[in-house]
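Long-time lurker. I teach an intro course on protein structure, and each term I like to show students one example going from raw sequence to a predicted 3D structure in token notation. This year I'd like something fresh instead of my usual example. Would anyone be willing to generate the tokens for the chain below so I can use it in lecture? Attribution to the forum is fine with me.
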Amino acid sequence: MSERDRLRQRFAGVKRQPATKRRPDYKGRRVQMSVRLPPDVAEGLEILKFATGVEKNDLVVAAIRDAVNRRLADARGNFDDADWEVVVRCARAGAPEKPGD
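-- Reply from a regular --
Happy to contribute to a lecture. Here you go:
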């Protein structure tokens, strides 16, 4: 029996879900990020989750979104329109160095 036949036999009982089904809480394409938090911040998140029922991820995303939007507005002021478009394109392409280096 070939390796391919063994794999087919092993996974014959696995049922595939249609590709159109998504989790009920699907919020679109996301990027996963690991963050190291000081113990007091991690504890505060746990307390908030327990006290309010809000998801820790939702709290962190909201805080990061606000901080990123403020910083982007500040950074945007340092460039004219054409230069800012270059910065955005480089960042999206994964340029390893920041502008000016």
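Some talking points for your students: The radius of gyration is 22 Å. Helices lie at 3-10, 39-52, 56-76, 81-93.
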